[in-house]
UniProtKB/TrEMBL annotation:
UniProt keywords, alphabetically: ATP-binding, Nucleotide-binding
Protein source organism: Paenibacillus xylanilyticus
Region (Disordered) residue spans: 11-39
MF terms in GO: ATP binding; ATP hydrolysis activity
Annotated protein name in UniProt: ATP-binding protein
Amino acid sequence: MEIQGNLEELLSTEKEQNSPPSLKRPLLPKGAHPVETGKYDIPTNEINNLYARVKESIEDRLPGTVVHGRPRLGKTRAIAYLMKALPMDFEKLPMYNLLCREHTKPNEDVFFTEILKDIGHGFYSSRNAVLKRERLLKFLIEQADAAGQNRTVFFLDDAQRLHEIQYGWLMDISNELDRYGINLTVFLVGQNELLNQRSVFFEEEKYQIIGRFMVEPYKFHGIRSEDDLNECLLCYDEGAFYPYDSAWSFTRYYFPESFEKEEFRLSNYSKQLFDVFVSLRQEAGISKSFEIPMQYVTRTIEFALKKYGCEGNDVESLNQALWKRAIKSSGYIEAEIYRGPD
């Protein structure tokens, strides 16, 4: 799948007009490449697994699913990817990405203000909670009707921040939509505290919340195997392109000559990179379950592309020492030393 960058920033001029066609590296504004901006998505094995689960939940019209995992695994980026990819299977399906903010005392007016803002409604701050609720329902119904759909999807990011009363307000929205024949599927995406909340609801016999939003939890993982890592590196080699409609993959852009002449590919280093992650953990005495959050994987790869490619040291090949430097620069080892229990 191609990864699109910011189209307005591209320049199609060539670095050297007399270069061989295969080596006419695009000349881009400084800092414009997605590796520099961080504005790109990598469809990892775990994201593909999550996609399958989300697709099934929508098809089965499930009211809600919990997606939980430790911080920095890439859950927020996964939502962004799903929002782009799901229309391939669900054309025109209304989908909304909502951010759960931290509130000590939940307020109904604030709750509906934030939802209206996140769905892109033009009038999210005026009037009272009752009118905002009506405005939200009217908008959701109109959008579903305009799309010819009888279902709507919410992704709630950082859902561990929700309070019990806010689940009640969500149920009210779902019930109102149901009266109009519209099914609402809610994906609660957040940290592992979501499971603790689920346990509390069980103890307090709040089965209406569990049955509506928390029936079958899904645990989201980071990189756990060499195969997972290879899938990521392969995307830089042949799945992520910039300019978006060019043949310039991220790897080719930063290692143009080696890519052409020596068949340089990051995916060829999957085992070596994985082994270095393992050895650095051992050196640091880290015995916790092995899992690399995507944040540190992308930082490591981006460091290698920028520092070792043609805009940096311009090396012809990578080795363990170079990968060690890249991993250490990502902050992964420090984060693993100080992270809490799984």
